[in-house]
Design brief:
heterodimer, A: 112 residues, mainly beta, 6-stranded mixed beta sheet, 12 strands, B: 114 residues, 4-stranded antiparallel beta sheet, 11 strands
């Protein structure tokens, strides 16, 4: 069965520092991986995806993610964090043709 | 802009009083989803549609029903809400059979039960 794990409930980082939000996956076959962000009282917003090709994927708002097949990881990164990046982040993997399996979420807190 | 719109954004109902949440989309996507999300947890899929073909998750309570009268609209009916049904309800869409395409989410309806 497909699954994703987000080992950190919360990540704290100072503004201007690089940030990493971790995600590992377990899939049969080729993974279709996604990152979403959720701000308070809002829906999930798509950030980026890995389907195939380059292992470094660039997405919205300066975020990027590195796909690592040997470590079965898909960590979300940003070189310089902003206070406005503070939100809840979900990693997800496609299950079958049209369903998503979400991780438990990681709350990112960026301090001024 | 094409989008997924949920109404109302906030809904308060009484224990046991039926409530309907609505979702509309201008993306013309064939697949529509309803999720339940509690207190910053991961969204939990309740059911989804391929056009009008309804697919229920095995653990979705019978208290939850849905209707999709056309491609653009989808409704979530909670027949007898209990206190445990207080949550954020998210609607999402995606094109069918394209696993590389992301789901597009509405901003949700936050349901409170008195």
């Amino acid at each position: 069965a497909q699954s994703v794990a987000q080992p950190e409930d919360q990540v704290n980082v100072a503004e201007g520092n690089p940030l990493t939000v971790k995600c590992t996956y377990s899939v049969s076959g080729n993974p279709y991986l996604f990152w979403y962000v959720q701000y308070p009282n809002r829906g999930l917003q798509f950030l980026l995806k890995y389907i195939t090709g380059d292992n470094l994927v660039k997405g919205s708002y300066g975020f990027e993610a590195e796909f690592n097949k040997s470590q079965t990881s898909f960590h979300l990164k940003k070189p310089s964090a902003l206070v406005s990046d503070s939100a809840l982040y979900f990693c997800a993997v496609r299950d079958g043709a049209d369903k998503l399996i979400f991780g438990t979420g990681t709350r990112l807190q960026v301090f001024p | 802009d094409a989008m997924v719109i949920q109404n109302p954004r906030y809904q308060v109902t009484q224990f046991g009083k039926p409530v309907t949440l609505s979702c509309s989309q201008t993306l013309n996507h064939n697949v529509m989803y309803w999720y339940q999300q509690k207190s910053s947890q991961a969204p939990k899929l309740l059911f989804h549609y391929y056009d009008k073909d309804f697919n229920n998750e095995a653990d979705t309570p019978d208290n939850f029903q849905s209707r999709r009268p056309n491609t653009s609209f989808c409704f979530l009916d909670i027949r007898s809400p209990g206190l445990g049904d207080a949550a954020m309800y998210l609607c999402a869409t995606s094109p069918e059979g394209l696993p590389g395409q992301p789901q597009h989410f509405g901003d949700g309806t936050r349901l409170s039960i008195l």
